[in-house]
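re: ur question from yesterday

yeah so i grabbed the chain u mentioned. its 217 aa long if i counted rite. heres the sequnce exactly as i have it in my notes:
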Amino acid sequence: MIIIPAIDLKDGICVRLKKGDFETVHKVAEDPVQTAKMFEASGAEILHIVDLDGALEGKGKNREIVESIAKNTNLKIQLGGGIRDMESLREADRIGVSRMVIGSAATSNPESVAQAVDEFGDRVVVGIDAKDGIVRTVGWTESSGMNYLEFAKIISGLGVKYIVFTDIDKDGMLNGPSIEKLDILNRTVNCEIIASGGVSTIDDLVVLNELNMYGAI
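ran it thru and got these structure tokens back, copy pasting raw so excuse formatting
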């Protein structure tokens, strides 16, 4: 199982939210590039970055920082937040992103995912963010009305290799990942599942590894 450290960016700094609530945002580090270098020095090979401003506004707001991390480290960057069309996918590619995470766009327009996979192959990742089993969009502020397993089946059928699954109620709480939902998801689709949200201890990672997760954020 691959361990993937994460940086959530808002207004140019590293932050953490609880359950995706922007009212709970607080700074955890000042310099994203130095934070990325710290992860790299610890042995990380992939870095998951979420542009929270981009997730809310639908377009990248912290792209200069992402590009700087790509240029100043050897980390493979997995970027989500504000990637909702082919233009934004190509922009992410241009600044050195290795994997592009599509979230909101995939629920409203699955055909766009097929087009993305056709152009970028397994560099396309779909983020499934769910609350009470229902997929949320637009920075987790809106409900799609779609069950996460139903959506995952659609995505799997489009040739997507990687899914990042986040149980919003677990995210930022540091009280363990959503074991049951992750296990069911992993058994339902052929995609490689990356667990996100709630991971805080080595024991959490051991359990996820036993569930045959591809990765853990």
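noticed a couple things. The chain has nine helices and 13 strands. also The CA atoms of residues 41 and 73 lie 10 Å apart.
anyway ttyl
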